């Protein structure tokens, strides 16, 4: 005679008290940090966090321009989201789009002078906040442990196709 199958409730590996506390803290961190970064960038530089991400990605490209599809892949965003943001940022004068020079298909995104000024003006305050909130509270050993832990978590998610 076969043993009765366990229900999903019985099979679940529930979080212990410490794991639950850690999960709730991680969830709050994941929610709160983007809001805090966005608020800092808006107050200090009149640019949103997503706009800053685009400015930074384009400014760091080796040719000074990125194809819009490559930009979406770099940021891990949907192409439609990137397209909407590019239109808004172009209207603000931060970037310009033109047909890709290599094959004429797709668009290349490059920063305008105003875009370069915006990223150069926003970066110091952004880096200061990141340093003060993420790095300064941690010892070098804790920073290394955090890095190793984040890599392990990301790899576990990637193995399950979640990232």
Automatic annotation (TrEMBL):
Q: Which GO terms describe its molecular function?
A: DNA-binding transcription factor activity
| InterPro entries found in the cross-reference section | HTH_MarR-typ (IPR000835), MarR/SlyA-like (IPR039422), WH-like_DNA-bd_sf (IPR036388), WH_DNA-bd_sf (IPR036390)
Taxonomic superkingdom: Bacteria
What GO biological process, any one, is recorded here?
A: response to stress
SMART domains with a match to the protein in the record: HTH_MARR
Coiled-coil intervals, chain numbering = none
The record's section on Pfam families has: MarR_2
Q: Give the PANTHER family listed for this entry.
A: MARR FAMILY REGULATORY PROTEIN, TRANSCRIPTIONAL REGULATOR, MARR FAMILY
Name it.
MarR family transcriptional regulator
> Could you read off the lineage of the organism from its UniProt record?
Bacteria, Bacillati, Actinomycetota, Actinomycetes, Micrococcales
